[in-house]
Amino acid sequence: MEAPRLAHTMSSPTSPCEEVIKNLSLEAIQLCDRDGNKSQDSGIAEMEELPVPHNIKISNITCDSFKICWDMDAKSKDRITHYFIDLNKKENKNSNKFKHKDVPTKLVAKAVPLPMTVRGHWFLSPRTEYTVAVQTASKQVDGDYVVSEWSEIIEFCTADYSKVHLTQLLEKAEVIAGRMLKLSVFYRNQHKEYFDYTREHHGNAMQPSVKDNSGSHGSPISGKLEGVFFSCNTEFNTGKPPQDSPYGRYRFEIAAEKLFNPNTNLYFGDFYCMYTAYHYVILVIAPVGSPGDEFCKQRLPQLNIKDNKFLTCDEEDGVLVYHHAQDVILEVIYTDPVDLSLGTVAEITGHQLMSLSTANAKKDPSCKTCNISVGR
C-alpha cells in the first residue's frame, strides 16, 4: 500500500525567523521511528548523512503552542528541505517502538529559519506533558525523503489557559446565564464531622484548601488556588437555597454581605459541564489586596461586582442587594478563612444527592456550549 503523501505545507511565517505549523493534515505518516526503523512502503529512501538536530530548546510555551529550535552541524545543511517533528504525550512515549498507523503524532514542516512556532489545539492540550524529537529530511525529485537520525528526546509541559482564553469562556457563559434572581446568603454543605473538626482544630475557622481538578483541563486555578467553596443558587419558587445537596447533610449559611461587598473583588474562573444539560460557572471572591486577590489578578478576568451576568452586589436605598444568574450553577470560591461564628450550621431537610457532586469532575470536551478552540 502506498503511504500517504505529505501534501500540506506550512502557512506564511509570522516573522522572518518564525514559521507557524498550523492547519496541518495530521494523517498517520509512516516515517521511520525514533530507533531509525523504516517501513518498506514508507516512501523514505535509505538514510544518508544529514545533520542530526541537537541541543533542542523549547520556549514561549502556551496552552496550545510552543516555539522550538535546535543546533545543527553545517555539513549538508543546505540539502535540508523539511523537518519531521515527533510529538507525543509523555505517558505514551513508550509506544513509539510499535507505532499504529492511525496515531497522528508526526508533524511535517518546510525547513525555515529557526525558531518556529508549533501551534494546534487539535494535537496540543493545556497542562499536559509531552515528549518531542526532531529529524531533518531532504525531499527527492521522486517524492521520497532522505532523513537524518532522530534527535534526543526532550520533555516539556504546556501551560494553563491565559486570560485571553478565559475571556472566551466567559463570553460563552454569558450567553446562557439567563435572568438574575435575588439571593441573601451563601451556603456550604459538609458532613457534621467537618464542622466538628473545624471547631476543635482550626479555632472555628473554615480553612482554604486547594481547588480540585474539576472543570476545564486548562483552568489556571485547578490544583493551585486555595479557597473555601460556597454555593449561592436559589430555588425559583422560594428564593431560598435548595434543601438537597451533594456535599453533606449539614449546611453553613452566611449573609451575603459578609463575604461579598465593595471590599472584595470578583473574578471569573471557569465554565464547564459534565455531560449534562446544565452548566457550571466558577467565580472567585477575594478580599482586596489579599494573597488570593493577587493570585487572581494575574490569571483571571475580573468582573464588575455591580454589573456582570453571574453574581452582582449593588446598593439600593443604602442596602446591599444581591442577584445570581438563574440558568447556570454557580460555584463560588472565597479565598480567605471563614469563621463559623459569622453564620449558622444546621441540618438540611432534603437529600444528599451524591450524583450531583462536581469533585474532580471531568469536563465534556465535545460540548459546543462550553468549549473554546484551544485544548480542552
TrEMBL record:
One of its GO terms (cellular component) is cytoplasm. InterPro entries: FN3_dom, FN3_sf, Ig-like_fold, PHYHIP/PHYHIPL, PHYIP/PHIPL_C. Residues 52-161 form the Fibronectin type-III domain. It comes from the Eukaryota. PANTHER family: PHYTANOYL-COA HYDROXYLASE-INTERACTING PROTEIN-LIKE (PTHR15698:SF8), PROTEIN CBG15099 (PTHR15698). Belongs to the PHYHIP family. May play a role in the development of the central system. This is Phytanoyl-CoA hydroxylase-interacting protein-like.
